[in-house]
Amino acid sequence: MVAQPGLTGQSRPGGRAVAEPDAATPLINAATPGRFTLAQLLTVLDVRGDVPPVPVRSLRSPHGGVLGAQQLGQQIVLAERLTPGKTVHSLHTVFSRPGDCELPMWIDVEHLAHGRSVGALALSVRQHSQALSRTNIMLRAPEPDLGRFTPTTVMPAGPETAVDLPIRLIPWEARLLPQRAEFQLEHWVRAADAGDDPTLWRALIAHACEFMPLDDIARLSGMVTPTGEIMPDTTALVLSITVTYFAELDVREWLLYRVSALSIAGGRTTSRVEILTRAGELRAEASVVGILRRRH
């Protein structure tokens, strides 16, 4: 197995040796839960390993569990590392339990299909015998166009006119535009220091899509504190997410994230995230199902 820096080999029942996060440095930025830089996030997302289960590090979260957005990004990166020449086209993730951000963590991989132009993997983030999430990923190889249609839309004002509004647990630039539709917010987002690896760009996009919808609904519902945090008497978590990448996109440039609530009822939310270039071209989309409710 190819282990990441700071990882050590340990044995498991049955005698099989696997790499495991070094007990002395299991976390990134362990001293400040929920506060991390883009560089720290990229370090955690840059998963490398060729024989599953692959050990991964964790960011310390404000709630003590393992961040779902982090799991998404790590699975995207590992899937592309294991299938050279292919990139993630779509993924669907179900989160089954929160886990513990201070415990060792691995990703199991099941190869479902491998062809010239298509690949499919099932990945599970695991702590001991418990799965925290399961993701089905479809990958694709470059192919020539038989036809081409790229939908465009009329764009709002650019990022120069938007207001700086940091988004919870997204450590890069985000600016909010004035609201134009009910339960819809538009954010200009740019990660200028994200490096030059498109695999990590796709991981950052999924990371952002996991956080934005519940934060936006809570903001529009008056369920955030003056500092932008979701109120402590509120339960907010994502149950599942589907992300589709239609074309290449560069997170170092300004992208518009248009976040629309489709349904809010019974403590459940369903939202759509559209990711558009400044020219109005739709490059990626996400559907997010979550829980948002007051604790009794």
Automatic annotation (TrEMBL):
Signal peptide: none annotated. Residues 61-131 form the Acyl-CoA thioesterase-like N-terminal HotDog domain. It comes from the Bacteria. Gene3D superfamilies: Acyl-CoA thioesterase, double hotdog domain. SUPFAM superfamilies: Thioesterase/thiol ester dehydrase-isomerase (SSF54637). Residues 179-284 form the Acyl-CoA thioesterase-like C-terminal domain. The keyword Hydrolase applies. Keywords: Hydrolase. Belongs to the C/M/P thioester hydrolase family. This is Thioesterase family protein.
